[in-house]
Amino acid sequence: MRASLIQLAVSDAEPPAERRARAAALVRAQEGADLVVLPELWALGGFAYELWSQGAEALDGPTAEAMSAAAKAIGAWVHAGSIVERDPDGPIYNTSLLFAPDGELAHTYRKIHRFGFDSGEAVAMGAGQEIVTAATDFATLGLATCYDLRFPELFRALLDGGAELLVVPAAWPARRREHWTLLARARAVEEQAYVLACNTAGTHGGVEQAGASIVVDPWGRVLGEAGAEEQVLTVELDPAEVAKARAEFPVHRDRLLGIPAPVQR
């Protein structure tokens, strides 16, 4: 299968409407791909906190409309990164959107781990409550977002949910680029799964982004890695490698945590 990661440059100078149109054009240019992935919060900016409340949108808002049409145009699965979702009955959320090749919104994932400690996303947004996997015609996807990479228990739960390809959109800063690469490879090795991690380029909210989008195979080998600037990273991968890696090195059968303790007699 062919996966294309669109490492979109996000800047404060570009209006969101213009960036939506540009992103949709980039998706449409990936005809022949089976899966297209965009970064986290690319329409407004992952660190553009002041834009979130006013720029939040519904699941059928302008970003979803543009990405749905683009997915249908090329007949591919499109992980449209994430939006600031406005929930009329609750807080705003950092919500990923996955579109099927017919343009239908197949799955959503509200980011569970919110970054910022006592500021930013951590206080402005609600936390997701559901672990999400998505069956496609080529593999089962496990959905996570950016800061989630630092929490291996989420990825173990995705593994238990059948995930074979872990898709991680992000707005990861340049100053922690080494962590990004290390954690992406670690999650691939731990779960014996592909990791497709798509980051933003550029600078927004005063924070320079790392770029460095990366595709890692189930053995931890890097199949492709982007630079710091906007680019499309396209990689050919074989989903059958997941089952092969798990059969050749069956580490998961030796898991002990979570097994009930023996009864004392």
UniProtKB/TrEMBL annotation:
Name of the molecule in the record: Carbon-nitrogen family hydrolase
Keyword Lyase: no
Family per similarity comment: Belongs to the carbon-nitrogen hydrolase superfamily. NIT1/NIT2 family.
Family annotation (InterPro entries): C-N_Hydrolase (IPR003010), C-N_Hydrolase_sf (IPR036526), UPF0012_CS (IPR001110)
Alphabetized PANTHER family for the sequence: DEAMINATED GLUTATHIONE AMIDASE (PTHR23088:SF27), NITRILASE-RELATED (PTHR23088)
Presence of keyword Hydrolase: yes
GO molecular function: hydrolase activity
Domain CN hydrolase, first and last residues per copy: 1-239
Pfam families: CN_hydrolase (PF00795)
The species this protein was found in: Kitasatospora cinereorecta
Keyword set, alphabetical order: Hydrolase
